[in-house]
Amino acid sequence: MSATEKKTPHAIDLQVGANIRQRRRALKMSQETLAQGVGMTFQQIQKYERGSNRVSCSVLVQVAETLGVLPASLLPQSTGAVTAFTADWSERARLVYMTSPRLFDAIAAMDDTELKAFTIAAELITGRQKRRLAAVPKVERYSLGDADCDDDAGRDANIFRNTRHDDDDEDESADVQQLAVA
What's the domain range around 165? Predict the structure, then answer.
């Protein structure tokens, strides 16, 4: 980058700055007042609001406290990837709760040490499950494609067959063990 080129602020920095400005103005607070509350100059607040300087996490927390909001409220709305990830975990949590409300409540009540011990125990159990599954004959997946699928979502239907019986090529249908919708 040459000395004459200006660096363009990142879209997230611009949004964080705009959110800070919007909240500050809603409170009818000046940049000077916000700067005093955070312990910096009003020029620095201007730079944050314009997005020309990136707000660090510690400053974001101080600004949020001064503005009387949670730090997350100053961040931009989540992206599609974050939303999908969160939705996936929310669905998993709902399934755990629906399957076993007592387990869900017990996990929610654990402190950090108990949660760490629980996680280690769960990893040990799933490790045993993986070893047991490794002893099961190898399974291959065959896609029939969307055109052959009758389900409402239009997902692929898959045939799984046991590869242990590859010698018996005369009757492939005997190898079909399960028809599953992925």
Answer: 139-181
Average pLDDT over residues 152-173: 43
User: Tokens 């389900």 identify what position?
Assistant: 151
**35 and 52: one domain?**
yes
- Using CA atoms, how far apart are residues 138 and 114, in angstroms rounded to an integer? 37
Provide the number of structural domains found in the chain. Answer: 3
Compute the residue count for the chain: 182
Mean pLDDT of 97-106: 83
**β-bridge partners, 125:** none
| Residue 36, token pair as written in the block | 């005093």
What Å distances lie between residue 40 and 53, 62, 77, 89, CA to CA?
13, 11, 27, 39
Contact call for residues 63 and 33 (beta carbons, < 8 A): no
Is residue 3 in some structural domain? no
The closest alpha carbon to 22, from 77, 79, 65, 73, belongs to 73
User: Are the C-beta atoms of residues 66 and 38 closer than 8 Å to each other?
Assistant: yes
Residue 141 makes CB contacts below 8 A (sequence gap 6+) with 158, 159, 160
Q: How far apart are CA 71 and CA 20, in angstroms?
A: 10
